[in-house]
Records
---
Amino acid sequence: MTVYKLSLKVMKSNIGPMTLFLGIFIGISLLAASSGGNTAEQLFTRSRVPIAFIAEESSPLVAGLRTEVEKIAEIQPYDDDSETLQEAIFYNRISHIIRIPSGFTRAFLSGEEAEVITYTGQSEGRAMYVDLAVENYLNTLRLYRIFTPDMPLEEMISHVHRDLEQSSEIRIYTDTAASESLTVDPRENYFNYMVFFNYQAYSLFAILILGISSNLLVFNSRLIRMRQVCSPLSSRKQSLQLFLANFAFALFCWMLMNGISLIFIPELLGTSRMYLLIANSFFLCFWASSISFFVAHLTKSRNAISAITNVIALGTSFLAGVFVPQYLLGSAVLRVASFTPTYWFVLANSQIAGAGGTVRSFSSLASQKDLLASFGIQIIFGLTFLAIALVLRKKQALAAA
Amino acid sequence: MIIRVKELVKRYGDLQALDNLSFNVQKGEIFGLLGPNGSGKTTAINCILSLLKYDKGEIEVFGKPMSPDSYSSKRKIGVVMQEVAVFEVLTVRENIDYFCGLYVQDAERRKHLVQEAIEFTGLEGFENFVPKKLSGGLLRRLNIACGIAHKPELIFMDEPTVAVDPQSRHRILEGICELNRQGATIIYTSHYMEEVEQICSRIMILDHGKEIASGSKEALKAMIDLGEKNSFEVYDISDEQLMKLRNIPEVAEVSYRDNMLLIKSHKGSNILERLLSFFKQESLPFGRIYSEQPTLNDVFLEMTGRELRDKATGQGVQT
């Protein structure tokens, strides 16, 4: 394993710049993961609207209405003074005024037209939410009045409160990754982890192209190749030893990245899909090593390495939805991206992270098949590039003179 | 027979780099390939080592056809390239150890061989230096150490003394002779005819990919008509006196340039005494006198009409 050992030794000589790059890329991934916490669920949170509730009469019905409105609104303590109320609504201290006119309860119970008077400020949208709550309360109570006319009012009101407590969870199901990321189980927020792992398609890929190309630049010198070709160690053995050494470097980077992720994102530990995300990351490590090994044979100078890294790692990351979610990319872009392994890596991450909320539960056979297909395609990419690199290396060895 | 090359043809497009080249190398020889730039020396070596594909011909090394997969033959071959081929990131010892390791797996034996190679090439004290800290001569020695550390039976040395200081050159040439004494067969290419004359037991002169002549240095010199060459430092000589000199039957050629009178004689003639009598008779004053036997450059000049070495720079031209 002479070539293998030397390759590791050359890697060691590059340890300074590589550690720096690794630190930067891990930092970027962690930043991306932490800023990726604004999931759809967190973007829309209920806020309590400040309102004034003026009741010109007092009755269980009015008290019940006040209780219901209080669930969604902050009732401000304003007296029934029109000037004060107008000023409050003008300066946006309250969004809405609900006035219960005198005789409202009697009119409502006798089936006459009973109207709640409302005043809305500039925030009409917020007011609608309050109006909706008022209408819900009154309409539900009206239903009880019609269908259970003998029930005492207090009992009806308690039933209405109980009924309105009920809520339904609404989920939107489609086959796109977008819906999957929107429907994450809030107890296991895989979206953050998915962002972290998605970023590995850039960070790990970039560090491997840099590291492996720098390493092979030493071995790919024409004179060194000539000398090696003259030796009794076959070209195939030399190439395999070189790949193994570079894959060992790749594994080291992969373990470091995932190890650090477990330190900085401890909640990932023990979660149900952690192993699948890490397995997917391992496939990334494999195909990124193969592609880097292939690219390294086309790299002629140290200056070209950073340019090639940017073009390949950044280019495929943009194209395949590492930085911009795949659901925001056009179908034509995604079609092109599907010819890159990065696309299948990102897709597999989405399938793992968002699978819990899809129509086809992750445990379903169809979903497992999709994930296995994504894994399989990545492996095929890795093997293909490795084979091409080995053939290219042999040709270059023979053309050394 | 260690190497048999038969009717080797190598073309680069329209250029015929090797033109039906044939030669044999016997065990224990130092076989010199001598020729000017582009004569095909390196191409011939690269073909023998299977570094280059050739268009026609046969090559056998150690009695077996040579191909890129002839690993058993390659195990017994050492190569010292024209250009220094070492790893910049490794020290002297690590470089030798690595290249030796491609041939010798046993770590203990390799350690011993590496130490021997360091001593053999005089690199003691530089073992832990990286190549960029070495002088040109030491780099060349490292290049040689990397090629011979595994004790090969057959060594190819392609211009190993280019751009080397006289001390290192002397050491390298001594080393080559020592390797040969230890039993190695050596193929040595150079444009330095003095080196080839000094160390090679048999020489082949190449030009335009063709064999011009081959044999021992004595045999090569015997092929030409030129005898000894006498040079006189003369400050004033008339055309009439030059004409008289040319008319001496044993004189083959007379030239006068930069106060130096060069008189070449025909083979077998010893005319120094006769020339001294001529100078006395003509009352022609002279300074220093040099007398030398024909060189391989004279052989090449007579056979091709061209100099083997570039006179303008005084340097040999590389092939």
---
Amino acid sequence: MLFNSLQYLVFLPTVFLLYWLLPQKARVPLLLVASYVFYCSWRPIYGLLIFGLTLGTFLLVPFIEKARLSETGKHIFSAKAWLTIIVSINLLLLGIFKYAYFTLDMVKGGLSLAGIDWKEPHLHIILPLGISFFVFEFIHYAVEVYRGKPVVKSFMALALFAGFFPTQIAGPIKRYQDFVPQLTEKFKFKWEYVDEGMQLILMGLAKKVLLADNLALVAQAGFAHPENFSSVDTLFITYAFAFQIFFDFAGYTDVARGSALLFGYKVPINFNLPYLAHNVSDFWNRWHISLSTWLRDYLFIPLGGSRCSLWLNYRNLFITMALGGLWHGAAPHFLAWGVYQGLVLILHKEYLRLLEFTGIAKAIQNNPTLAKVYHVFSVICTFHIVCIGWVFFRAENMKNAWDVIGKLMTVPAELMHFSLNQLTILQLRDPIIFPALIILIPGLMISHVVVNWLNDKSFYKNPPWAVQVGVMVALMCLLTIFSPDSSPRFIYFQF
Amino acid sequence: METAQANSTSLRPSRFKVAKFFAALAIFGALSAGLSAIKFGAVSPDDFPVNTWTSWAIKEFQSRKTAPDVVFLGSSLMLVPLDGVDADFTDKRIDGALHHKSLFFEDKFGKYTGGQKVSTYNFALPGEMPSDAALITKFLLKGQKAPKVLVYGVGPRDFIDNTLPSPAATDPFRYLSRFGDWSDRVSLIVPEWQERLNYELGHLFYPYGNRQQISQSANKKVAGLLDAIVPCPPDRVLSFKDAIALRRKLVPEHNPFEINPDECFFRPVTETPRPGFADNVAEYAKRYKTLKKETFEGQMQFMADILSTARDRNIHVMVVAMPITEVNRKLLSDANWELYKTRLRALADHYETSFYDMHDSGLFAFEDFQDTVHLHAGGGAKLLDEMARVMAKDTATITALQARDDAQDKQLAGRKEQPL
């Protein structure tokens, strides 16, 4: 069931009404049943997978606590061993469903390099929706219990933690300490839940349907046929994908958060104006926040984090980001994206060291005007560094990625003799999103700045009634008029 | 933007007891009613956003000053042989988008009747279902544009197509549904609950129900604005044909049904045997996989609607059960095949239309087909020749052709007598 489907238009209000009409004690079971109905509407058999994994985690995690608390030390396994078992089971399942084909391809490639012709077995594995997200939530739960946090006593609570339908398929990746206590809260209905929830849902759908889906046409054309576009066209296409993936995923997150809010639940934010980041490290504090903090807490820090030698710190960063890339998809171009992110984070640290070493950092700090100019320059540079990374992310394969990167590398040369005649996006007048890019892309960039300014002015904390209602009416009109007969799936559903 | 999500988690007490969302919904409802009253963004039904087989057929039909004598209806089973035969007959390539008649049939009919001239119009369209044919009959073949005879060539696929989600999913439906009210058949056209909900929402909220037209109008305005602000550099402006070629290459999924003049030709073929038999067994195995009762009964109802509307308008109908190969026929169970034939015959009998079973005529061999269901031009010539022969001898057809002539003559004569 997609958020941008009629099924969801019926499902959500039905669950909402039942939820608030039923007595408190029936609400969590209702949400659990609804969440399984939501999941099973895709492939009922995979409902068993999420159920089995929940049950296994629920039964095994208490052993970590027991082993940890055991004073006699006579427990069969140590807490660490139990943690290893639970994490391994989760990762094994993720590996089977998500990385089996990739592993076989790698093995086949390796063997063929050694001159061995191996015919890999033909597997019929369909990636269960949301597996990457709920596996990460279970691992987080096990690790937190290992670190001393309490276990979840109620199976239903743990099942709803992983299965909660608004966040089930593509996050945000929740923390059980934040979510599970909400299950015991006695929510009373408030109109604010509807107001805030529906605003988020409408905003999210608008991001997806009006912006992401249209920008997707440009990205699709540009990445499928880079040879047909000039370098400057390719730059616009890369920008278009940068905004497509942002609006697609941020739109999804808005709908997820809005849906959760209708029931009084709060789930974590995932984005905070990522394209205003002034360095790549800052970018990762603003982009897919629930994933980046997960990677920090359960991969980067266990590897040693930054409290170690510089080179070990770099190694940890590199491994974390490379695996983060692979988490997005079992393909070399996702791995390349992760590796690229790791490398640019390392380069950024080296760059900061250089600025410190040369005294430039201090000079910038001491001059407010220079600091402002440098900030703007940093934001622009960071955006472009991120955009280059998106090429690996979006490309069909590595060759395609290099083709597009090759084009982008010649942008400066092309700009030296630039004329509008070079732009294929101006030549293609239908769909109108192609020529509109010339206006839309700068507009979207400026909108980031405007939203940031409004944020600074605390506009969002108390927007006027008329503005809120007006925005909702406008969004309703735009969504009804421009909603296509079928909208593509959210990008992050595939992960 | 996304900061809304960053800050919206702190819930604030509302000054109003009614949720802002419901206030917005109420305003949207009122706005919707207002837009409906002024018909905001409405475009003429024949202002098509994209040219397709359907749009070209409708446009040419609408531009005719007089009604044709004979109209052909059907899917590609009719379209392919009709156009292919004319290519052979005229020894010229036939432009599929623009050719909407059967010169071969007109010639043959004239010969079999000893010189009676008939004009024809080919309203057979790729993928046309009886539901589409019913809309053509109901909305377009009326008044001055009502033909004298309707020839409808049907095949089992028209009633049993598992690959079609609903009658509303065809390209012909998209455009034909603009020409009138089909709410009396809504339960058949949108039988599935989601489609039905979609339809009801469209009725409830004007902007949603008319989104295609409104977005079409908006697109035109935005395109005009873009032409003014960011025009295409003059020396890179493409011809219509080249622009479409470029778009098809770069954005192939955009407007998948689009077709324009000079894009689809039927060329004269002289070779015997004709080249290139296409195996479409797998495709039809999917289409015939199960007989869905709702689809079958629904399409039979539309078939009945066609016959009923035609009877009300004094249009004589000839239903032709089109020939298909035995390979294709055997993809259907005997029971389903019999059901199809029996029901078709029963309908024809009930509405006293002429019925001709070409499949059982024994005239067609495997060699007459270009795949398992479509006749090639050679087979098509046999089909049209036989149709012309049978219709020339069919008293009901001849009577219809003549009776209407008389009626029209009288009508015209009557008009002349009236003072200006």
